[in-house]
Amino acid sequence: MSNSLLAARALFVVQSVLDSVDLGNVSDSTYEGQITSKPPGTSVTYFVRAYDNMNNIAVSDTGAYDVQTAFRFGTITRTPTAPDSTQEVRVTAVIVPSTTLGAARLFYTRNSVTDSVAMTAANDTTYEGVIPPHSTGTQVDYFVRAYDGQGFAATSPTASYAVIEPISFTPISTIQANPALYYSSSVTVAGIITVGDGKLSTSPRRLYVTNSSGTGVRGIQIFSFTLPGPADSLRRGDSVIVTGYLKDFSGTTEITDTTGFPLTITVVSSGNDLPVPRRYSISQIKDLSLEGEWVQIKGFVSGSVVAGAGTNVTVDDGTASITVRVENATGITVGNVLPSQSTFIITGPLNVFSNATQVYLAYASDVTPDTAGVVTTARANIRVSPHPFNPRAGEVIKYALTYSANTRVIVRLYDVSGRLVSTLVDEVKAAGRDESRDPFSYRTWNGRTRETQELVPVGTYILHLEVTDRLTGKTTTKSAPVVVGTRLK
Q: pTM higher than 0.85 for the full model?
């Protein structure tokens, strides 16, 4: 009588408990069985035992595996980071599921009492929950627990915070209404950074904090040679609490630090919307009492002059003219952003210098061309010599552009799949021109990328011309094919 396999079983051990499951025959020599699902973190060892009709038993080698956690926790943050007794705390958790997420809950413990709240989905992987306010001095510990559809749960590490006493704030508008009342004393203000660290100067460091009130959108300058944190760590859109020494410096009210009054800046949250600026005529903002106001003006740029570590731009709206101050630290090229003989809408804080007001421009995005009633004159055309060329033999291809005055001219090179290969031209043109009318104005391309000077492969490419009217923002485009060939052998 020959031996034949009668049965096979998989035996497995979970937490020192032996269990088993039958293996079913799926082909002449293959058997399958399934170990039921186990909680995350469980260690399982297993082996297979086979029985034949002669009562012989064969045992396989032992295998092992650990049951993975159903979820992976990413960043978990809270806002505010240092809450006072009047503030609730919003906890945001990134949870990346390896199985379907059934629910997420936020657990918090204070004074040995634990409560929990359901978290709501902000998107596919981000969940939010709110811890209510607690009394000053309370220690709050919290963690997030995620549940899958099979009853398994994963728990984040525990984090903690202590509830602080509410801070007594002085509204910026109150300070700016009568700054002399607060000079040489410590003040605490709250607001949104509208001009970030490093945009007005890098040493000393200056920024503007602004808040809204019934009398306007008032801001105040923060000034320090030893500003807390690394340079550029305090950015536009940060909600901050600032405590420091109030003083007057050449007509500018500022919060700074002294030996007896250290400057502290606490970031409450980031990425906030900016306050809506108030629109003024230029004659209105000649008023020195509006210092620090977050303003918006519309006017005609009549000229500019380099002055110290920046440029003074003169803007006139028919009621008066004012200086728009652009510090070198902003990185703004004035001729590109505020060219003369054009009208713009400009947003920035109102500063006082030499007993006169001026508007600080810190970001190019705070300038918008005034297009009301303006018709664009943008023209665009590109002409390319109608033949292939072999750059590997030193050949070049000629092309010419047509563009209007006061435009930005960009020529990009794309392959036939639409992938950007190189930007060949990016220029601002004060005067318009049709280069094809002058053979000496023809441009050439040598078959290399502008960025790396590498030869492009043989093939067909598209030269794409984009001409943007810098007054209206309207863009006109034209394209032309160019063929890069090679010498036949």
A: no
